[in-house]
């Protein structure tokens, strides 16, 4: 059962980037072993994930849950048809990502100085300068580079983030980096659909670079925000099984939109995602048990509806 109605017409494809191994686990108090991370990645591939944010190359003293990034990348299957993404915050991380053999690099670009200081000990201006170097590192190895604009809709330190502030930072990023994709992150889950639609629509009118949405479910607006982003032309979305996720440097950054809920909603609407919602639900239960927390998805409680005999 994939959750798709037999009467729903086909509407095209939507890509889901599963970030469970990175964003899903980075803020959990109970560490997950390298072997279990590799099982998680392999099971994500089995349920249909084709782009997976597998690791981050960050200071292991600040984010110890990601300290085994090299070991994880050394253990992933290279013949599974999956693209493995490594998140980086600076040039050192970019070099490490290249050395580890990632397929894509995701560079975090804060849009407020307050979050830049807390998350990366930098400023927005300095992060933009570093982007030029990161872009060169990625290009030299022919690795696609995504920029994720963090706290694009609201910041735990600044508060509300005006759309023009986000757009201004992203414009600078587009000028200074060779980008394969731009993601806007609702890092603390404070965005509402009207805001999401307006910012994405404005950005889409200014660039042909593909856009992606990273939405958190803190205030239960992530699925509504998905709809708003799709109305603005976005077709790529981040998610995590079980609704896991959070940021050590963003108070209130509760879990990501769950992979199972996102895939189920899209399937019911007639979109193709390649993700099996039922399998994603079961995987979410497994990894949540590993970190001793309850799954946060709707499907984990309600199941796939309707159940047909």
Index terms:
two-stranded parallel sheet; 40% helix; 309 residues; eight-stranded parallel sheet; 12 helices; TIM Barrel; alpha/beta; single chain
Topology diagram in text:
Elements: E1 12-13, E2 15-18, H1 20-24, H2 34-46, E3 51-57, H3 69-75, E4 83-88, H4 91-100, E5 104-110, H5 113-120, H6 124-140, E6 145-150, E7 154-155, E8 159-160, H7 163-176, E9 181-186, H8 193-204, E10 211-215, H9 222-231, E11 236-239, H10 259-268, E12 271-272, H11 277-290, H12 298-302
Parallel strand pairs: 1-12, 2-3, 2-11, 3-4, 4-5, 5-6, 6-9, 9-10
Antiparallel strand pairs: 7-8
Helix pairs in contact: 4-6, 6-7, 7-8, 8-9, 10-11
> CATH-wise, what's the superfamily?
Aldolase class I
In terms of per-residue confidence, which ranges show pLDDT below 50 for 5 or more consecutive residues? none
CATH class membership:
Alpha Beta
Strand content: 15-25%
Helix count, DSSP H or I runs of 4 or more residues: 12
Average residue pLDDT: 95
The largest β sheet comes out as: 8 strands, parallel
- The end-to-end span amounts to 10 Å
